[in-house]
Design brief:
alpha+beta, Beta Polymerase, domain 2, 2 domains, 5-stranded mixed beta sheet
Amino acid sequence: MKKEQRFRHLITQEAARLMVNEGVGQYFDAKRIAARRIIGKQYKYNPKYLPSNGEISDAVHELGQLQDPHTHREQLFRMRMCALEVMEQLEPFSPRLIGSVSTGRIREGSDIDLHVFTDEIEALEHHLQSLDWPYRRDTVCIRAGSKLIEYEHIHLDFEFPVELSVYPEREIRITGRSSTDGKPIRRLNSAKVRKLVMEEHWQAYLRAGGLEE
C-alpha cells in the first residue's frame, strides 16, 4: 500500500472512531483532528491524505455494526418510530425524513433530521405550541454558489433529539445533494417511513402493536 493510501486509511478509521466514541459531530472536524493525530504537524491540511465524507460514513457504519449489531438495530427501530410519530403530527408541513435515520447509518449521538415546508414559520411555531412541544429556534447560513442563504432550524427534544430544517413550500420539489456522498438526498414522507419500518423491522413493529390501527 502506498504511503498516501496508508495515511488515508488510518485517517478514515481514526475519524470514524472520533465520531463514534468521542462525540465529534462533523465530518469536517473529524477528518482534520484525525489527520493531525496520525500525521502530526507536517499534515498542513494536505487534501490528498483526507478521506471523503462517504469513506468516513462507511467506516462509522462498520464500526457501529461491529460494536453491537443488535443494539444498533433496536435503536434504529426506535428512532424511526419516533420520527414517524413526529411526522404524523407535522403532516400539514409535508415532513420528510432525511439523514442517518432514513439510511440506517446511525451512530451514538445521531439525531432525527426532518425537512418541513412552509412559507410562514409562525404557522409552524403556532402548531408546535398547540401540541405543547417545547422547542428552540435558530438560524443557519448555507452557501449556495456565491450566495449565503439563511434557513430556520427548530430543535425538539423527545426520546431522541429532532431537528426540523424549515424550507419554503416551493422547495419540496427540489432535491438537494448530500454532503456525504454527493448523491441526491433521500427524503421519505411518513408513508414511506412506515413502509420502511414494516419491511426492515417487521417483528419489532408487530411487538409494538403497529397493526392495531
